[in-house]
Design goal:
This protein is an alpha/beta fold. The chain folds into two domains: 153 residues, 3-Layer(aba) Sandwich (Rossmann fold); 116 residues, HUPs (Rossmann fold, 3-Layer(aba) Sandwich). The chain is 40% helix and 23% strand. It is built from eight helices and ten strands. Strand 2, helix 2 and strand 3 form a beta-alpha-beta unit. Helix 1 packs across helix 2 and helix 3 packs across helix 4. The protein is globular and about 65 Å long. It starts with a strand and ends with a strand.
């Protein structure tokens, strides 16, 4: 059984993320493991309490206990809503479970990945500048912190389906294996895979040679798959990126995440992580 870890904050965006995960399951037996982290480091300053009463410890404990209780109630309600979605979709191979815990989100997500060993994380994101557990910066941190695939889904995305997947390459030695894996995971015959590289100045001939080699290998081993190959001008990368995703109706962007800077070896300093988040598209972070 495949396990998908889905961090949630019980918002409408979390339910949308569950719908997105449901769309990706296909006919494979899958466990959705919902995970919620509530803050457990609340401190309330002393005021006019009786002398000797430790108000910080007392009130913080009471508040955290209430947060835990509410989180467990919200998890039960959320699971019921997702099971209704599953029933309405006439899919019989989905099971659900939920965990709530207090702590730091990045650390707790890393810990639960060690415990349950999910195959993939699918998490919603409200994008940069919007505060909360599932803000864009948290998705960025998780992409770099774990060694399993992570899909970050903006809350503006509708789970209408997948038709066009972009794989951003810098000609890593693992590109071939990653693209093969993408094709194995996203099996619909209607999907077009776009392998895209942004050319660096002074090396167009080398980029062309490497793209042709990758193209030859993939077309030889995946002759029935619709895979297109693109070399893009790097002079205005951010604008080219936005134009490409719009013109090709890209539904999902896949890339290799690096520990220090997930785009360090993908683009030069002229493009930043925020450019991907600004696209408001689901992003799939893979790992070497």
């Amino acid at each position: 059984m495949r396990t998908i870890l889905i961090p949630v904050d019980f918002s409408a965006g979390s339910l949308m993320t569950a719908r997105y995960a449901l769309m990706l399951t296909g006919n494979q037996e899958t466990l959705f493991h919902f995970f919620h982290i509530y803050p457990d480091q609340l401190m309330i300053p002393d005021s006019s309490f009786i002398d000797g009463m430790d108000s910080d410890a007392y009130l913080s404990t009471e508040i955290v206990i209430e947060l835990k209780r509410q989180s467990e109630q919200n998890m039960d309600t959320f699971e019921s809503e997702v099971r209704k979605l599953v029933d309405d979709s006439n899919i019989n191979n989905i099971k659900t479970t939920g965990t709530v815990t207090g702590g730091d989100p990045e650390r707790e997500i890393k810990d639960i990945c060690q415990r349950i060993k999910p195959d993939i994380i699918i998490m919603g994101t409200r994008g940069e500048g919007k505060k909360g557990f599932l803000e864009g910066s948290m998705a960025d941190k998780i992409m770099s912190a774990v060694d399993i695939p992570v899909i970050a889904v903006p809350d503006s995305v509708e789970s209408a389906g997948l038709k066009n997947i972009m794989y951003a390459t810098n000609f890593s030695e693992t590109d071939y294996q990653h693209i093969i894996k993408l094709v194995e995971v996203f099996t619909s015959p209607d999907i077009t895979f776009h392998v895209v590289h942004f050319e660096l100045k002074g090396r167009p001939a080398e980029d062309l040679r490497m793209m042709e080699a990758l193209q030859q290998s993939l077309r030889q081993d995946l002759p029935d798959k619709n895979i297109r190959f693109h070399l893009m001008d790097s002079d205005r990368k951010s604008e080219s990126l936005q134009s490409f995703t719009k013109d090709n109706n890209i539904d999902l962007i896949a890339f290799i995440a690096h520990k220090t800077n997930i785009f360090q070896n993908l683009f030069s300093h002229q493009i930043h992580k925020r450019d991907f988040f600004k696209l408001e598209l689901p992003m799939l972070a893979l790992h070497e």
